[in-house]
Each structure stands twice: as C-alpha cells, then as structure tokens.
Amino acid sequence: MEPLFTTQILKYKGDEVFTCDDTLVREIKLEIFVNDEKVGALMATPVDEKALAIGYLMSENIIAKTQDIKSIELKDDGMSIHIKAKIDKKNLAKLNAQGVVISGCGRAHTANIDPKSIEASKIVSSIKFSKNEILKQMSEFYTQCELYEKTGCVHTAKLFVNENVFFIGEDIAQHNTIDKALGKARLEGIDLSQCFLMVSGRLSSEMVAKAIMHKVPILVSRTAPTCLGVMIARKFNLTLCGFARENKINIYSGESRIYG
Predict the structure, then answer these.
(1) Of all helices (H) and strands (E), which one includes residue 258?
(2) Which residues lie closer than 8 Å to 132 by C-beta, 6 or more apart?
(3) Which CA distances in Å does 182 have to 51, 64, 161, 204, 239?
(4) SS in 3 state form for 90-127?
(5) Residues 219 and 240: beta-carbon distance below 8 Å
(6) Among this protein's residues, is 195 annotated catalytic?
(7) How many angstroms separate the CA atoms of 77 and 95, rounded?
(8) Is the pTM of this model over 0.70?
(9) For residue range 103-156, what is the model confidence (pLDDT) as tens digits?
(10) Catalytic residue chosen out of the listed positions 105, 145, 195, 241
C-alpha cells in the first residue's frame, strides 16, 4: 500500500482562489499477530511496517532479540503483520492487562510507563558525542525525511550510527517512528549502545521508555521533555537532550556523554 494519497482541494493564496492537487499521508490500522494470536493494533503510516512491528514488540520486551524471530509476513492487503517468534508470554500478558493508551497520535498501548515497573537495567554505554555533532545531525534531520518533505504531516525519528549509516522512521504517530527506526537497526544487527536517537516531537515518557528498552544511550529532540520523561531518563542513566537547535541544547540527564 502506498503511504501517499493525492486528492484535489480548493486553495486560497492571497486574493486568488483555485483548485489543485494536494499530497496527503495515509493512515491505517495495522494489526499485529504473533504466533497466530492478535497482540494489538497500531494506527500507522503504511511504510516500514515490519520494522514497526518488531520495534514495538522489542520495546515491550515481548521479543528479546532478533534471533528469536522465525518469520515476518506483511499480508497482501497491507493491513496486518504476522510474526512467528519465541516470545515472553508474561510480558505479553502484562501488556494486555496493564497497557496504557499512550499520549502519541493514534491509539497504541504500552506497559512501559511507570518508572517503578519498567523491567530494564541502567544504561552503561560509555559512548560520547560532541554537542556540535549532535546539533549538526539535528540540522540535517528533516532534509532526510521523504514523507515529511512531501506532506509535512508526519513525525520523524533518526538513529545515527555514523556519517554513513543511519535509520529513519516516519509515521503519523511519534512513538511509531522510534519503533520503525530502531526496528530497522535491530533487524540489521546494529549495536544500539554506540548510537544516538533523534526525534521530532516531545520527549514524553513512552519515547524515553522505548530508548531505554533498546539500550540507546542518548535521546535528542528539538522540543521539550515531560517531567515523567526526565524522571525515567535519570533513573536509567539515559542521556536526554531537548531544545537541540541552532547552537543550543538542554541536557536533562546523563550529561557525561556530551562534550563541548
């Protein structure tokens, strides 16, 4: 299924009025099945669906590692993903019982909101990045996001590995972009402990929790974190950076990984 849709609209430009074609981003309900059981559904943009499903399931600790995945199939209608894998049934039950509708776009669930109940260890990565490198990558971020360039209607995420390797996630829902970018990297066998993650939107609790569950040491946005996001980041030693734009950056936790 194509992620873009073209429709005719009426447009005002100053005193001029005319009809023209406009490009919109599609929104679908993507159902996720694991071992023939439906485990949830995500409102999503129909691109990188396999990476989205894997990123989401690994964020929730339902799948522990990519080696546990036997097969991934996107059905022909583009509306469902079917995965065969070794899973943690306890965490799947926890998601079904305690799942919270998260604050991103659409209606997705996570069990990783309460900092007391997140089943993760502290991030111990000793990787460091200069503030200039982070600001440079943030300045280039949007120019690398095709759907955003065409529609202006999606959130974006970028996992930076090095100058030649990075992974982009684009979706109507901010939390999906993280799952897509990290899902792509996990499927490629990337060591996430040596990377940093950039997102276009706010650093709310679910964004921070996803970075922690995947052991990404640094999370950066051009906007602000929430109080709960900062609390979770500090508890698990995640480097959390907000308002990273032009020559400025605010560091809310894990400042030792950023140098001037």
Answers:
(1) strand 258-259
(2) none
(3) 8, 14, 11, 17, 17
(4) HHHHHHHHHCEECCCCCCCEECCCCCCCCCCCCCCCCC
(5) yes
(6) no
(7) 27
(8) yes
(9) 344 445 565 555 555 667 789 999 999 999 999 999 999 888 888 888 888 999
(10) 105
